[in-house]
Amino acid sequence: MFKYKDSIIEASLIILFTLILILVGVTGFLVWKRTEVTLDKAEIGLQPKENLMLIKGINSDMIEAENMILAFNLSRDSSHMKDYDLIVRKTAVKLLDLRAYSHQDKSFSSEVDTLTDLVADKYLIMDSLAHLRNNYRVSEAMKKVVRRTSAVKQNVSDQKNDSGLMEKLFRKKRDRQRKQQESEQNSTELSKLKSDLYTLNSTESRKELINNNIEYQLLQTEKKLTEAINVILLNLEKEEREHLKIELNIGAEAAKDTQGIMLVFLTLLILLISLSAYLIRSYLNKNKEHQLFLIESGKQKEELAASKLRFISILSHEIKTPLHAISGFSEQLMKNPNSQNGKSETIEMINESARHLMQIVNDVLDYTKLEFNKVAILKEPFNPAEQIEFALQLFQKNVDSKNVELSFDNQWKKRVVLGDQIKWRQIVVNLISNAVKFTDSGSIHVQLLALTQSDRQVLVKLVVKDTGIGIDEKELKSIFEEFKQENDHITVKYGGSGLGLNIVSLLVELHGGYITVRSEKGKGSEFTVEIPYQIGTSDIPQIDKKQEEFVSLENMTILIADDEPYNIKLLRKMLEGMPCQILEATNGNEALEMAKIFNPDVILMDIRMPDKNGVEAAIEIREAFKGKENHILSIVALSAGITEEIKNKDLDIFDAFLDKPFRENELFEIVFGIKKDLNTQSKDENPDVQPLFNLETLKKTTGTNTSFFKEMVETFIESTQNGLNEMSVNLKKSELNQIQLVAHRIAAPCKHLEAVALYELLKQIEHAKEIDPVEKWLNEAHLLFNQIKELLEIEFQSSK
Amino acid sequence: MGAVNKEVYRIGIIEDSVFYNQLIHRGIEDHLNRCHVDHNRDYLVETFMSYDDFYRNFNGNTKLAFIDYQLDNNATGLWVVKEIRERCTNCQMYMLSDAKRIWDLYSCILEGADGIILKDKEAMFWCKYILENLLINHV
Fold first, then answer.
1. Is the CB of A711 less than 8 angstroms away from the CB of B22?
2. Of A139, A143, A387, A525, whose CB has the highest number of CB atoms within 10 Å?
3. What confidence tens digit (pLDDT) does each residue in B88-104 have?
């Protein structure tokens, strides 16, 4: 059962381990999947949002474009315009990209369209602003021209003033005249230019004013456009941020879920690891335990082998000693069969040796039975004190010869318990036997006490105290173990199988009791046995031992079936002088044949026989005698190894069992018992004749009160008569129901008086389905009742 | 000196068979006279031969009743059981029957009867046994 329980626990752990492993795998997979999703979401979150970037890019481009235009307007550097063109292109590309990203979201794409238009308008205005300031160059150029022409004019006047006297007079009059003409032309042109320039300047001034106005308007428009663009950009940015938030939230939730599953996964993983660790540890422990167990059992086996070897050597000595005596003394008798000199002593020695040998063998058998739990405890009433007195009587002679005083203090007189008398006797005899054996002088005191435990239970206490050799303190612990005597010297000096105390302790244990010992080397020992018993009544069944005196084996045929000639001879010897026929068979087949031919009354059947053993032969004999119901056959099993198991199994084949070696009186007890059974078995009465009534039950009911008995008989007669009469009256009226009621009423008393025939008739009437047959039954009932009445009256007359 | 008021322990037998009525009556009385001499108590065994007789004369202080199942005029023990249950607070009821009317007897048990005694040779023994148990517990 324990191993079975272990296996269930192990199997459960393995199943649990597998389940957790599967769960870990599943949760691990889920964690991986969730982590993937979470990472994807996080990736999305981390990726720079294109739309937002574009929106910001567009915004910054426009600011930059504005700056470029402003720079150009201030510096008139054409490189700024180049940069500006670049920015415009970049903005256009961004707008196209934004449009492309937003194509799935309709509201977003419509906003992008609006933004595109607004940005285009803004750039147009900026273009206009840039071109507007470009005309101013003309005015500046014109101013430069004016300054230049002013400088030319100054040169011409200086040339006029700087001509010399000689040059003027003689050398280049022509040149002078020509130069004078040129300068007059130049001054005329200059004057014209100047007036043109002044006209242009004034025109320009007016244009500048107009341009300023236009610029102002353009700037206003630009401002509005910029505001509108900013609003759209803000909306777009907001929307994008919202989308981003949502995606981030989704990612966060996925992360949370992942967290939860991760927790579960980790928990299961820890469980799995713990379980694995536990299983590994328990496996290692079991391994270790198993190894220790193997080592321990190896040691025990060695010890046991050593003990057994020692036991066998002791036992062989103990067995050989009496055998040697039996063999030796028997040989002497055979040598001188007629010599009377010391014959009775010789026979006594042989008998004593045989008894001793039997004791040894019985000890071994008892020990074996106890070790293999083949002993049953009987529950019969017995007096423990009586068994002690019996045992003391057995050893009285031994103690007398040794000058040892044997005393018994019975503090629980005449009390009866329910238990196994034989086992109790065995305990008592073994303890007293040990005390007698190991006490050479002094006293042996036996005490019997009882401690009441409850109304039904009592603890019987037996104390055996001696002044013997005592037991060494070191050996006290192992004194109850098998094959142990204190040491080999004790065995040699005192003999014994070394099983006595072991048997006692096993028997006490079997009864649920305790045995303890106190001892001092050289001073003596005290053994205390406590056994709980149920309190019995004082009625101990007395076995009538006188029966064999009155039973004769006359006309009895006894068949002895045994393959051992010695056993047949011994049985013949025992039954010698009895007036019975004795037959012999040496094996099972022969026994069967002889049984069929001679119809013996008793078969003494040995169990172990060649060819066909005693059990098989007995079964076949029983089968053969099945048809012979008048012949009663008893089969007694004889064997040296009859166990409880065999007895229980073959209970219906054998009538009795005799363990070899058995004594003569044991055989007689069984055989005479069988004969007595045969004698007392009477033939059956004629079963066909049934009495009309039986007053035994009524007598039992009324007890010793004769007036009560007579009254009841008279009542029976009167009530039944009245009932039958009433039924007859109702029959005339054809009232079946009334008839049946009355029949029911008077039927029961008939049953009480065992007037079976009358009872059955009345029941027939009670259950009649129609009235026709009732008349016939009623008439029969009247007749039957009249007979009963007559007999009852006769009985009454005779009892007076 | 005033007379001591003794307790009266009533036992009722409702049985239309003269034989059984007398048997149980005498049997119980005999038993009580031999085994239960009690100076503080009187035992009274009352018998009723029909349902009408029972209905008119049955005392509500009865402690034990033996009731035949099949009574006269098609009356049954079941009626008696029901009636006793109405009148008595603490009356043990045992059905007497020789019939194999298992269902009928069972229905009496359901109504409150405490047991069934078959009318065979053991009937008287069981009546005494029940009485003894009751008296032991009552005491």
1. yes
2. A525
3. 888 999 998 875 666 67
